[in-house]
Amino acid sequence: MKNHLLFSLLLCFSVVHLAAQSAIGLKAGINASYQNLPSILDLEDETNSGLIRGQIGLSFKQQITPAFSIYSDLAYTQMGGEFEYFFTDFFGERIKERVTTKLNYLSMQLMLQYHLLERVSLDIGGQLGYLTDDNDAVLEPADWDAGIVLGSTFTIVDMLDFQFRYYLGLTPTQSFEFTDQNGEPTGEAKFKNRSLQFSLVFYPLQFGKS
Question: Which domains does the chain have, with CATH numbers?
Fold first, then answer.
């Protein structure tokens, strides 16, 4: 009986100690963001370019085993993209058009980190964003954006991490339906977010560090 009690106490102590291996931080960085250009548009000499935008928020990380950690954050994230194309008007003249879309989200990431080295981890997870505002986009944007996040984290010093991540949006942010001269639908173009994310995370609050 005493052995079982001792084992239970040790187990509880271990769980509490492990749970204490956590940190709360401040995150800031930039997004090199763009939107995919659907091939169905078939525009003339189109160029798809990105926008350099920002993100800022709060981060939390929790070590669950020596090899794995869970990371999450809540951030104000700016995304969007820009593309230019030419079209031929009724008079046969080539007209240049530029479309810029800026979408701002309150987003949350949830990542699993595998510590490849002591200060280097490989990260995989997801991101969910709720649209807070846009720049009067030509196409009405969806309220939600969700996708996959892949990347890596480098611990510069104990209180400072550098993150590099790629976000692949899976849900359409905007869509446009094409119709023929009779008004019948012939296809639909769907735009999705993409971004390269570079961030610094400063952890002033750390718990359970030996």
Answer: 32-207 (2.40.160)
Q: What is the pLDDT of residues 143-190, one digit of tens each?
A: 999 999 999 999 999 999 999 999 999 999 988 765 556 666 556 778
126-138 pLDDT tens trace: 999 999 998 877 7
Cα–Cα dist 52/50, whole Å = 7
Beta strands in 11-119, from DSSP E residues, in sequence order: 22-35, 44-49, 51-63, 68-88, 94-117
**What pairing do the DSSP bridges indicate for beta strands 160-169 and 144-157?**
antiparallel
| Distance of alpha carbon 83 from alpha carbon 90, whole angstroms | 22
First to last CA, the chain: 32
The strand pairing partners of 73, in sequence order, are 59, 109
Is the distance from CB of 193 to CB of 147 less than 8 angstroms? Answer: yes
H or E element that contains 11: helix 2-19
- 13 contact partners, CB below 8 Å, separation of at least 6: none
- The whole-angstrom separation of Cα 182 and Cα 55 is 45
For tokens 């718990």, the residue is 207
